Amino acid sequence: MWNDEFTGTELDTSIWDYDPHEPGWTNNELQAYTTSTDNVFLRDGNLVLKAIKTERSGKDYYTSGKIKSQNKKDFTYGKVVARAKVPEGQGLWPAIWMMPTDESFYGQWPKCGEIDIMEVLGSDTKTAYGTLHYGEPKGEQQGTVVLEDGSFSSDFHEYSVEWEPGEIRWYIDDQLYLTANDWFTAEEGQDEKPYPAPFNQPFFVQMNLAVGGSWPGNPDETTDFDKAEFEIDYVRVYKKSWYDSDVKKPEKHYREATEDGNFIYNGDFKEQEDLTDDTNWKFLLFEGGEGEAEIRDDMIVITTKNEGTVDYSVQLVQPEMPMIKGKKYRVSFDAWADEQRDIITCVSAPNAGWIRYLPDTTLTLSTEKQTFTYDFEMTEKDDPLGRLEFNMGNRGSTATVYITNVRLEEVE
Fold first, then answer.
1. Catalytic residue among 10, 22, 29, 119, which?
2. Has residue 188 got a pLDDT over 80?
3. 119 in catalytic set
4. 114 is catalytic
5. What is the pTM of this model?
6. Which of 5, 55, 88, 114 is flagged as catalytic?
7. Domains along the chain with CATH numbers
């Protein structure tokens, strides 16, 4: 449909508009988005969005760049491909994303829908995120790609989304990592809008480099603003000649409990399994977390080398927990550590705005095996994709943790 290779000397305003905003416009971000060519410019065949740190009234002041194709290159359904290189640095937050042309059509965010093609936190440039936002109450689906070698700041990578009436797919360097087909939107207290709303209306592409905010945190003394540049090599948008809009929302499938009533699979760790896939247990590292997980002797052993900067920097999870409104549940497990230390457990909602069905609960492990039990009632909308979490990051300890006999079951 259209493309921009950024080979000229200035921004092509037949495709893009500058999108200026004052600091704090959204997400508690610090930057002011400007129309200055200091913040948005073309160089060596790339678009550069540059964050700049100055002072105003004796305080740090940040400016940066944001552009959008709204009302110039809007489209419904298609494939967006962008090749880009992100900056490294605490508090830097580059993004390529899509919003509806008429945000009020289904209601203000998140009811209107949002497609995040790519986000990377400057503090962890080995990890990239693709996300879908929608609904009332808020829904969310997110996928991640973690590079084993190199980073998204050390070289250019290609990010793409294929958006069709009943399915949206995310790719990095042509590798599929997230597929979404179950979404919704509604006004509070009303029935859901007909599927595939809200992703059946014109959207536009936008790109920005944020500074600070609720997710990445603020920059610090390690952030090098001389290198705070988000470089985009090209943006290319394709469209099929025809789309079948006669699509139906897929039925939800709820995991069944084991014979003894446990919704956790392999909760006794008697089976070896791949801890990097999405089946049963998964071990994750974020935001400076370093460690390993190993199943042995009917338990899982989590060895931490660096606790990272957030509680989920070192994380063990099991997804696909069926959470039914009105039912009561019990989480129980045995755990201990090489020395006394804290961990956090919860049952979260990755597809419902990360709310908590079982609130974040801090517990103290000793060197002796203890049994921990927590009851809670599910009060939210039915969710087949609840997630049991053990968070071991940023707790002031790297002591090895041992967990076994994990259960999540319904109780009267």
1. 119
2. no
3. yes
4. yes
5. 0.89
6. 114
7. 2-238 (2.60.120.200), 282-411 (2.60.120.260)
